[in-house]
Amino acid sequence: MERVQLLKALMGNLEKDEGVEKSPNISIKLSKALNFSKEDRKIIRDFCGMCSKLLELEDQYDCFLESDRKISKIITTAICAFSEGNIRIYCHERSMADILRSIGHEMFHLRQHELDLVPSNMKQHHLSPIEWHANAAGGALLSYFAQKVGRDKIYR
After folding, report:
1. Running DSSP on this structure, what letter comes out for residue 73?
2. Which of the 8 DSSP states describes residue 69?
3. pTM score, two decimals?
4. pLDDT per position as a tens digit, 138-150
5. What's the structural domain count of the chain?
6. Distance CA 17, CA 149 (A)
């Protein structure tokens, strides 16, 4: 599969999606320092399930929601660690919409990696089409999810 085809496949899956479901592919691990409500945890779990389904993830991954950049080794807002089979999202004082967008972005990278679309010697990550596609996917997944569950639950 070519890089652009993955983004097109995601958009096709968005058009024919039939609902949100729990994902057996993503295990969510919350930092004890985060004070997410039960509703927030459900929103995140449902979003991860939807992303996993729409991206057609094949492998099992962990999604670490972190409150400390130093401990989690997150330099920006999120990181995808292919070799460790996880994504790590920095959540401290970030909006729900921004957290979900980061999750969608990193989960798209997981699928890119499953399809061998990420070269091992990639440089200037932020200038790469791989990153542009993940940005587009993260935004599309967030917008679609907010429309399905209610924008007021996401954009607050």
Report:
1. T
2. H
3. 0.87
4. 999 999 999 999 9
5. 1
6. 14
